[in-house]
Design goal:
Nucleoside_deoxyribTrfase, 37% helix, Rossmann fold, five-stranded parallel beta sheet, Group-specific protein, alpha/beta
Length: 142
């Protein structure tokens, strides 16, 4: 089961935590953007954008950690359009506050998880149990 985690650079540590935990459980990380330096040229932005788009499209699960930036919201849109399994994480109930939320957060195909990162991981893992065959490559990243 391949996954991608979208978020803001401000949440880099949280993204790394979620990615590490899922990888250790046998899920395959489609792309780790946290290993990138902040791009300083348009060419670098293009390269990263291509890799992130491919990662979203090649993932079974897309996790969006809020608060996110414009890139993570574009990735959410791609995941919705591609009919991926989507988990939208927020540490608080702001995603249900009419003054702060997005219409796309409310779509039935977007599963909201409010709480801790461990709550998120438990939800993802309970929804997508790994088969023995899938666990063969535990701890690897693509």
């Amino acid at each position: 089961m391949r996954f991608y985690v979208a978020s803001s650079f401000k949440n880099k540590e949280q993204v790394e935590y979620v990615s590490h935990q899922l990888t250790m459980k046998g899920y395959v990380h489609s792309y780790d953007w946290t290993k990138n330096d902040r791009p300083t040229t348009l060419e670098a932005l293009t390269e990263i954008g291509i890799k992130e788009k491919e990662a979203v499209m090649n993932s079974d699960i897309v996790i969006v950690l809020l608060p996110g930036g414009k890139g993570s919201h574009i990735e959410l849109g791609m995941a919705i359009a591609a009919q991926k399994k989507i988990f939208l994480y927020s540490p608080d109930t702001d995603i249900d506050d009419l003054a702060l939320t997005s219409t796309f957060y409310q779509l039935p195909e977007v599963q909201k998880v409010i709480g801790t990162l461990d709550d998120l991981l438990e939800t993802v893992c309970s929804k997508f149990q790994m088969s023995t065959q899938e666990k063969v490559g535990i701890g690897r990243e693509v």
